[in-house]
Design goal:
The chain contains eleven helices and ten strands. The chain is of the alpha/beta class. The protein has two domains: 177 residues, 3-Layer(aba) Sandwich (D-Maltodextrin-Binding Protein, domain 2), CATH 3.40.190; 135 residues, D-Maltodextrin-Binding Protein, domain 2 (3-Layer(aba) Sandwich). The longest helix has 26 residues.
Length: 357
């Protein structure tokens, strides 16, 4: 009897020690910390504790690099939030964010394999993948290996004029001073694309190739008749202008909206909500283009599916919307609205969620 008791005690001790060691090993499966994003937006909330991707597959340890943009722009904190969800949800995966020059650099470096994920304006992905009339990418560059993952946040275009201006439509800017952005920039490309459906080129206007901050000062001095500004809404530059000068945000009329949507598949009809800017009492019809997460065809299918499950988990999606104001647009229903082919895992995920046929 004593022998059985001793044996039972020994077994219980071994079992207790084993359970303790197992619990400790589970508690140490944490990812390395992300680089800090600009500002304190990453500290607002944490991803849902119960939002681990439901996949049962265990992935080998690996590091993923996510190309963003400058640390003062929207892309850096946005990528930071997306990376943090990956790190908190999928064991053995450490996603780090790289500050980059933005869309064009991300397109080239993801294509070259230097980055596994990137953010880019959707029309730049379209130009890289299909045909580039803007000259941003050269004809000998091959981007056929790129695939989209999901739209992420939208950039809207604001057409800003002084309140006392006689400009009521973009058709009225002929001969006027128009700030269109630096040649080759996404703002410049969108500005010229919109003007083209009105039959306007740089030959018809006094084009100012200024940065947003330069345009703010020029507008205040009365040197700019119209500012065409694309970006996450509200744009800080437009806020500064409208807070300093009485302005109007002019709409894109229905006729020219239809022409834009027919000619450019990467633009979508949208509205700048009422009261977005000072003096703007009503919604203003405009266009939006998506900023898209992308990768390459050879990205691991199961891992990407697990990442998608994590990003679009209800709790994590609510967390991401607190990371940066522009992510308020992030939603599952519009996520498949991309203009280059989807990665097969992303396509299947959207089908499984019922948002893609």
């Amino acid at each position: 009897m004593a022998k059985i008791l001793k044996t039972s005690v020994a077994f219980i001790l071994v079992l207790a020690i084993s359970l303790t060691l197992f619990a400790c090993s589970q508690g140490t499966q944490t990812s390395e910390a992300l680089p800090a994003s600009s500002g304190d937006s990453m500290d607002k909330t944490e991803p849902s504790a119960d939002s681990a991707a439901p996949t049962e597959k265990v992935f080998e340890k690996q590091v993923l690099s996510f190309g963003s943009g400058s640390t003062s722009g929207a892309y850096y904190p946005v990528a930071g939030g997306l990376a943090q969800v990956i790190n908190e949800s999928i064991p053995n995966i450490n996603c780090i964010v790289e500050a980059t020059g933005g869309s064009v650099e991300n397109v080239r470096r993801v294509n070259a394999g230097d980055l596994q994920f990137g953010l880019a304006n959707d029309f730049l992905l379209y130009y890289a993948f299909y045909d580039d009339p803007s000259g941003t990418f050269s004809a000998d560059e091959d981007f056929s290996n790129l695939v989209a993952v999901a739209t992420n946040h939208a950039s809207l275009t604001a057409l800003v004029v002084p309140a006392n201006s006689d400009i009521n439509s973009l058709a009225d800017v002929v001969g006027k001073s128009v700030s269109v952005g630096a040649p080759g920039s996404s703002n410049y490309i969108t500005a010229m694309n919109i003007l083209s459906v009105y039959g306007i080129t740089e030959d018809n206007i006094k084009a100012r190739h200024e940065s947003f901050s330069e345009t703010v000062e020029s507008f205040k001095q009365g040197l700019v008749d119209c500012f065409i500004a694309q970006g996450g809404t509200p744009l800080s530059s437009v806020i500064e202008i409208t807070n300093s000068v009485d302005c109007r945000i002019i709409p894109i009329d229905d006729e020219h909206m239809a022409m834009i949507l027919e000619k450019y598949p990467f633009y979508f009809k949208s509205d700048i909500s009422a009261d977005t800017y000072k003096g703007q009492d009503n919604p203003v019809q405009t266009i939006k283009t998506w900023n898209t997460i992308f990768t390459t065809k050879d990205f691991d299918y199961d891992l990407l599916y697990a990442i998608m499950e994590a990003w679009y988990d209800d709790g994590n999606l609510e967390y991401l919307k607190t990371v940066h104001n522009s992510l308020k647009d992030m939603n599952l229903q519009e996520a498949p609205n991309v203009t280059i082919p989807l990665h097969p895992a992303a396509e299947q995920f959207f089908k499984d969620k019922g948002v893609l046929d």
